[in-house]
Specification:
Blueprint (H helix, E strand, L loop, with lengths): L7 E7 L5 H14 L2 E4 L2 E5 L4 H14 L3 E7 L4 H9 L4 H16 L6 H21 L5 H21 L23 E5 L4 H14 L4 E5 L10 E2 L15 H8 L6 H15 L7 H14 L3 H21 L3
Parallel strand pairs: 5-6, 5-7
Antiparallel strand pairs: 1-3, 1-4, 2-3
Helix pairs in contact: 1-2, 4-5, 4-6, 5-6, 7-8, 7-11, 9-11, 10-11
Amino acid sequence: MNASPTRWHLLIASLPSTGATARMRLWRAIKALGCAPLRDGAYLLPERPGHAETLAQLAQQTIAEAGEAWLLKVEPRNEADEQALLARFDRSKEQRAFLDLVVEAKKGLASQAPADIARMLKKLGKERDAIEMIDFFPNEASLDAKAAWADFVEKANAILSPGEPQAQSRELQLLQVRQYQGRTWATRRHLWGDRVACAWLIQRFIDPQARFLWLDSPADCPPDALGFDFNDAAFTHVGDKVSFEVLVASFQLPASRGLERLCALVHALDVGGEAPPEAVGFEAILTGARARLSDDDAFLAEVGVILDSLYAHYNKEAP
């Protein structure tokens, strides 16, 4: 046996033959969780945060619908049993199928309209997230698909946002807000998610008297201006942090529920990942405001009010 064998949950559930709707609902929930069927009515899942609670809810729901359900913990007897259980969660087939989709989509990138590329990114991104959620034991196929997806996203974003910064590998400097007052800050014009959020953050928490320059090109940034959200700017993407998160961390802004949730929102809109429920609505507001307002100062003023409201709302939420 391995020194630390995988811990397993086993849900055994059965519903009356007349409950077709309930059986379909149970099956969809089990499939979405990534359970492996051992036989009809017996579903295996590795121990992960939240899995026990979710399976317990499914068991309770099954009993409430006149069925029977038991939730058990399973321990393999030996290494052979352990490997047999692990094999049921091999997602190589799904990862290779996704890789084929990405390779095919990449071939037509250059000839597609931006709107079509954006739709494709969203569609493939959802498929990617669904596979990642149930790939509990990544292997070589997982790594291949991950690398291909990262390359596709980079190339698609380069077409959609030619000036979008590439993440840098460097240590974040810890800075003092008092040393950055009354400064000139510069970023690319036609503000969008990360850039407008950065400008709001600077005004709200770092430099209330900030002056902003909206650049046609990062090359136009004056040497005495503090650039943000473009390659080689003073504040830009570092590691897995977008520019908004880099500003929060660099200036050691006081931890709050509001800033934590805004970081998650801006990160999801800019580079993807798990998005909070408000992301769809906030993106729609950005799109509408951008369609109405060609002036970046007016855009910042309008979106800034929305960010103020979101910040206040998040801070009222229970942790």
